[in-house]
Amino acid sequence: MAERKFWLFKSEPTNYSFDDLLSEEQQTAEWDGVRNYQARNYIRDEMKAGDGVLFYHSSSIPTAVVGTATIAREAYPDNTAWDSKAKYYDPKSNPDNPTWMMVDIMADQRFAHPVTLQEIKKNPKLSSMLLVRRGMRLSIQPVTREEWEEIVALGRQGQ
DNA sequence: GCCAACGTTGGC
DNA sequence: GCCAACGTTGGC
Hints:
alpha+beta, globular, 6-stranded mixed beta sheet, DNA-binding, 6 strands
């Protein structure tokens, strides 16, 4: 069995929050709308069922990792790409040759203590994360096992 | 609301 | 294939 990988998914909570994921049936959602090739490649080529996901709230107060989730279904075509009424419609993609892919994620646990971007920047174990590198605006990023473990440990502790 | 840093687009 | 213009992201 391949080694488990770890990821960070960004979402603006006003658009889709961790609470929204928790309130889904089976606490599972299709992660559609990814329209960046690098993120698409991670989804298509590297994500496996069971991989860990840090759920990050961007453009919020505070910006923070608020919980964890699991890859529940591996890459499959993002059908919203060829829905002309969808927000992320892409006329270049079609069912015969889908450009964009998505995974399903299932909520795992909400952190007792959201791990803020500020804390991440101050923590020597976390300060080299892609997340805090200037200009790293990927909505889906790989996270190392060490970073995963540190953030999960911080998130679990009450305060 | 500002604006820096990206990715994408399209003219040449 | 270059690169300027443009749109988007996302912290502040």
